[in-house]
Amino acid sequence: AVGGHLVVSNETNPTAGGISRATALTPGPGGQTTVEVVAAGLADAFASGEAIDTTEMVEPELVPAGAGRPSGQNTPSSDCEREMAVAKVKPSVGVDVKNDSSLEWKLNDFDARIAARVTPKMAVTITGMTLSAECSKELWSKQWDAPIQAGPVTIPGYFKVGSELKVKAQVTAFDLTGSMSLPCTIGVKATKNSFENITGCSRMKTSLTFTPEVEATATLSADLEVGYFLGIDKGGWAKANIGMTTGLEAGIEAEARLVQNPGWEVDAYLDANLNLEGGLGKWDLDHNIANKRLKTWPIASGTIDNGTAGKGIPDGGTYHPSEESIEPPLSPDAPAAIAAGYEQTCALKQNSTVVCWGENYNGEVGDGTDIDRHTPTAVVGLSSVTAIAANTCALTEDRTVSCWGLNQYGQAGDGTTLNRYTPARVPGLTDVTNVGETRGGGHSCAVKQNGTVSCWGLNDNGQLGDGTTTQRLTPTTVAGLTNVADISAGGRHTCAAKQDGTVSCWGDNFLGQLGDGTGTEQHTPTAVPGLTDVTAINTGANHTCALKRDRTVSCWGFNYNGQVGDGTTTQRYLPKPVAGLTDVAEISLGANHSCALKLNSQVACWGWNGDGQLGDETNTRRLTPTLVASLTEVMTVTANGSHTCALTQDRVVSCWGDN
């Protein structure tokens, strides 16, 4: 073995009848010990065990690649590499494909949409004047020989441990990225009486991003390496060796960014690697087959105030042309749905459990305590959840409902008026398909599979719809109401959207929130006149909005802060179209503000804005819809009280308003 490598020579002697002479070199003190094998063939020699140990001392001539590995001693070394590039151009292209189909139907009509959103994208990134330098210094290393005996042949190998310091710095004058995308829709739209080709493209979107960069990285690592090699030596080009090394590297990595998002991070890490090493003649081989970061442990991080942050330095950005329409599996902890309560918020997770945060004085978080929670906290004893509602009720897979929190008026539906700090099953309520949103009032409602509605809790204005003003501690059926598709409970009124596209409301009507053209309180469902083709209903404290089949929205009721969205502050006793609002996918109302999610995944809000609940970076009330700032790719929106939350397609929850 020469320098940790095995050398084998095989000589044929014609005068001896073709008998082969095999010589294997194995380590020995002061040099090399030659083991000579004589047989009709090398394989036969191994099989027969005919081996003659001549114990010759031979000086090796071959020094294969990797022969300089240290053995049993410290061998510090260092190396530096520098690179400068005036400019690099990196083009990239990609296509986003997303399903945009939908189907809605009722007894005498349907609305079908079969479509896909196809968005070709192209980007070109120019990196200008890049100067990078990387230096590494081996601080310490030690190696132990670990040969493997294969019959009379020894395959040499080794174990090695060591530590290394690596420092890398990169200064890029700028990254200039230009991108173009062309959103297109391919598909058709059909109703009972019409068929429409909706294929077409929107206006091309372009962007230009300028990003200065300065960053440096330092790594201190320790590694454990194992390697084994085989080799031959016939002289000249006929000498070669090949081997595999594998190992683990653990270290601490520190990174600093001085211009783009100034800050620093320190992480510990563990890497695994597999390398192919060897040589042929004077050619060396050193190839990394695999390198995988097994684990990263954040240690510390912070920001750097270099006097320029926030003063005109562009934020920059990233572009991902390889986006695919098929998303990777979501984490079990990823949020699937959100619901804002009056002063708390909840999220339904992919694993069918629920977390809540916010005010917890009456047990609204459901964690068994009355301690306010400033971060998401698991609701105790709740699993197999399929939907959640703002009044802290949850619908489970068995179509039953559990509620928790404030129960002063029996709104938890468990037959008592005791606050519930953990979920309690609503007795006698089964076959539920939809739990209605509640806007801070004292009652709750649910739609059953047979299209009827049950409500419970406070009933001083007839908001339970049973023809009385008697408080109900358990569910009671709403009188004369069938074929219901959606339900929503307001401050002291309730509204239902029916399967035929009409709307009925009942309860308090002092501010016109029932939409029947009067201010008269109603104790049983009353039709909203002139309102048809409604697909969803939502109530605020004292106003109501309906989403129509044509993707427009109409609202009515209290309008002092412009929450009806018609551009005035005039109280409305009949539905009024929200000004300039089209292409709406869903709606959600707070106490005195309203929000809509549009088909382009943006959110618009209007009404009272004293706590910033409209998300437009002001406290100015808005009489017509205003886009929420810096919020795109939204999946769903929820509003209540004086705050609003949104769930985006990357499964991030963002909230704004009263905190």
**Overall mean pLDDT:** 78
- What low-confidence regions span 5 or more consecutive residues with pLDDT below 50? 1-7, 9-22, 24-75, 307-327
The major pleated sheet works out as: 15 strands, mixed
Helix content: under 10%
How many individual helices? 1
User: Would you report the number of β strands?
Assistant: 45
Please give a structural write-up.
- The protein is mostly beta strands.
- The chain contains one helix and 45 strands.
Task: List its salient traits.
659 residues, mainly beta, 15-stranded mixed beta sheet, 5-stranded mixed beta sheet, 1 helix, 1% helix, 58% strand, disordered N terminus
Topology:
Layout: E1 7-13, E2 19-28, E3 31-39, H1 42-48, E4 52-57, E5 78-99, E6 102-106, E7 109-145, E8 148-150, E9 153-155, E10 157-181, E11 184-191, E12 195-197, E13 200-201, E14 205-233, E15 239-257, E16 263-280, E17 283-303, E18 335-340, E19 344-349, E20 354-358, E21 373-378, E22 385-389, E23 393-396, E24 401-405, E25 420-425, E26 432-435, E27 437-438, E28 443-448, E29 453-457, E30 472-477, E31 484-489, E32 493-498, E33 503-507, E34 522-527, E35 534-539, E36 543-548, E37 553-557, E38 572-577, E39 584-589, E40 593-598, E41 603-607, E42 622-627, E43 634-640, E44 643-648, E45 653-657
